[in-house]
Amino acid sequence: MFGLSNKWMVPVTEDKSTGFIDPTKEDFARFREMDRPGPVHMLNLLKFRDKAAYDDGTIATGFEAYRNYARESGPIFERLGGRQVWAGRPELTLIGPQKETWDLAFIAEYPSKDAFVAMLRDPDYRKAVRHRQAAVADSRLIRMQPGEPGAHFGEMTLDLSDEKASL
After folding, report:
1. How would residue 18 be classed by pLDDT, with cut points 50, 70 and 90?
2. Domains (ranges, CATH) in the chain?
């Protein structure tokens, strides 16, 4: 799933304890209500803690804790048909809040919203997610509808309200 290596390790200068880590019940309900057929892309933006915040006192960096999460949740992600379609390390926010910095960005694809929901409800995933919660100081998880890029910059095809639209 997330083949993280030490090349992704970056120094974390701030350890926010009030970041966005898990979805709210309301947001998760809205996610489930969006009943569109087809794959779902999830854009992940992650800021790691300097030191992981495990309830049981386990000692690790945020990066190491996230690697544990990836190792334990990866088989579940793949079993449900998930795949990682893009990954990168953000270097600079050119447009947007300069205080909002990220250590890792990636897009995960799920065959459907039901596959994503099944992952979150899987008992083994629920055990693995403790590593993510310990690792992450702040995050964004943005659901996206995949589109097809066109032949030229700015061209793409998106399925908008049961009608194909080209931009």
Report:
1. low
2. 30-145 (3.30.70.100)
CA dist., res. 36 & res. 42, Å (int): 14
Ramachandran angles phi, psi of 24, nearest 5°: -75, 165
Average pLDDT over residues 120-126: 97
Tokens describing residue 163: 């009608």
Q: Is residue 148 within 8 Å of residue 157, measured between CB atoms?
A: yes
Q: Give me the phi and psi of 11, to 5 degrees please.
A: -70, 140
Computed over its alpha carbons, how large is the radius of gyration of the chain?
Answer: 17
Coil/strand/helix, residue 53: coil
| Angle formed by the axes of helices 113-121 and 123-135, nearest 10° | 90
Q: Which residue is listed with tokens 């120094």? A: 11
- Residues, the chain, total? 167
Instruction: Evaluate the CA torsion angle 23, 10, 53, 123 in order and state its sign.
Output: positive
pTM of the model: 0.83
Question: How many degrees, rounded to 5, is the angle at CA 106 between CA 111 and CA 138?
Answer: 115
In this structure, the strands spanning 163-166 and 156-160 are antiparallel
